Structure formats: C-alpha cells, structure tokens
Amino acid sequence: MFTPTEITEIQKLLTPNHNIVIITHYNPDGDAIGSSLGLKHFLKAKGLEADVIVPNDFPKFLKWMPEAKQIIIADYKRKQAGEAIYNADVIFILDFNASHRSGHLVAPWIEKARAKKILIDHHQQPDNFDFIYSDVTVPATSQMIYHFIQELNEEHLVNKDIAECLYTGIMTDTGGFRFRSTSATTHRITANLIEKGADPAMITSNTWDTNTVSRLHLLALILGRIEVVKDGKVAILWLKRDELKEFGFQKGDTEGFVNYGLSIMGTQVSAFFMEDLYDDFVKISFRSKEDVDVNQFSRKYFNGGGHINAAGGKYMKTIEETIVDFKEKIEQEDF
C-alpha cells in the first residue's frame, strides 16, 4: 500500500484545479475497465472530474457499466486522448505495470507527460513511477482501488456506481471468485460492495450471459479439437485468422476460452493460441493451477508475463510453429 506520507501527498494532488486522467492497458478487460470507472466515480463523489482513457476498444459486454460510453478510446479519438494526457496534472496508471503495456500510441504520451504518475497494479515487476502501489497477492486492481479508498478514509463515499464497477472488476479477474488469489478480504470487500448497491445477479448477467452466435461457433470449434499433452497436464486450444473471419469475430468473443482447458481433469496448464486478426503474430493466453508459474514461463519463452496463474504472451511465428515450439518448451519445465 501507499505509505501515510504518500497518501498525504496524493491527497494534495486530488484537487479541483488539477486535471486528472486515468489510463489502463491495451486490450482492456473487466478489471481494467472496472477499476478505471470505479476510480472515476469515486473521484466524482469527491467533487473531482477525471477522464478515463483506454488505448483501444473494449468488449461490448463491459459497456453497460456507468459512464462506460464516456471513456475516451485513443484509437478512435487520438487528438482528444493525446491532449488530455499532455494537459494532465495527475495520471493514474491502473492494471498495468509498465508504460509499453498501454500500446505504441499511448505509451510515448505517458512517458512524455509532465503529470505526477500514480501506479495501482497487481502485476509483477512494475516500472518506476512517482507513486507505486503494487501488490501481486491481490487478485484484482479493482480490489486495490477499494483499499486505496480505505487508505484515504473515504469509504463512506462508495456509492452504487462505484460498487458496480469495482464488483465487476473483482468478479472477472478472479474468474467468478474461483482463483487461488481470492481471499477472505476479497469476499469481505465484495460483501461491502453489495451493501453499497452492487447487484451480483445483474452484473453477472450483463457481463457473462452475453454470448454471440460468433462466440458460440468459435467455442464449438476449439472444444472439438482440444489437445492434451505432457501426460495429461497441459491443454492446448487454438484459432486461426481465417476461422475468426469466417465466424464474424467480435472483440471479446474469445474471452475466457483459455479456462476451458483447465476444466479438464488432471490438467495443470491451459494454453490458448490465436492468430492476430491483422498482423503476423500469435497472441497467447496461459492459465495454471496451484503453484505452476505461467508468468515466468511466458516471460522466459513467449515475450510476455502477468501473474503466477494467469499470463499472456506474443510470438512472431506462424501458429503451427508456435504450437510446436510450445510443446518443446513445456517438456523442459517441471510441471
């Protein structure tokens, strides 16, 4: 957490005469959007205005959240996003640990910005910023935003909008409270958010009960060809670019696909490989159980990283070559 001195300094920055910007990572997920909007609504409850900027668009199933439509998508509104960052006095960096995780467009703006930069994130090995709250044991950045509010002694300001956004972020990043990092503290916080107005049934329905025809077609395709290797410990799922196009892929359609590999009895690791829709590289998602560290595995071999049990990567080969290389790499690992 922030030290008492840092909290005092941050409180001095959070004033109406300061321009405040909130930025999250490229390809924003539920925790990225939930923590960003949750913080925005908290600042609003304090009488402050803040712009939320995301590098690129985010899935439709997250756009129900309060004021999601006011988020500035840098890919679509470059001038507005660039000017907001340039004029910012305070920049909150949420759910990513290094500037380059915000993509080639936004990252240089962050690095050149004169603003005080406040990092709140739960990924390993954060870059250096003016203020850093980094804790890899916390399952979601949205939970860290709640802790930040507690540190400011302003928990009483948490309202329905804040509660809905933070609950969504925690729910999605814990896999519906299934992952090991979900703690008693996590459940106490979500209970508080429910008391403040978050409706778990509504949030779950709006966020997860949103299948499209394209998503179901793609899911049927990968489930029909799951491959299990390494004596049943590793599941492999994959999709090619022409398959995405054939079934009318939309952003967010493959969300959660990697988790199906872990649902197979005996598996310790699930790996999902997908060709990028436009560029010649393969996007990779890893999930694992117990103490199997896919973060270090991804950093070591696939230009990525993340958490012990959830990580991503990027590989500049064909999907066939990527899967062959993956199979070779996992034989060198003790899991």
TrEMBL record:
Record-linked Gene3D superfamilies: 3.10.310.30, inorganic pyrophosphatase (n-terminal core) (3.90.1640.10)
Q: Where is the DDH domain?
A: 19-170
Leader sequence range is: none
Name the domain of life this protein comes from: Bacteria
What Pfam families does the record point to?
DHH, DHHA1
- InterPro entries recorded: DDH_dom (IPR001667), DHH_sf (IPR038763), DHHA1_dom (IPR003156), Oligoribo/pAp-PDE_c-di-AMP_PDE (IPR051319)
Q: Where is the DHHA1 domain?
A: 233-332
Task: Recall the GO molecular function terms of this protein's record.
Answer: nucleic acid binding
Please identify the protein, giving its name as recorded: Bifunctional oligoribonuclease/PAP phosphatase NrnA
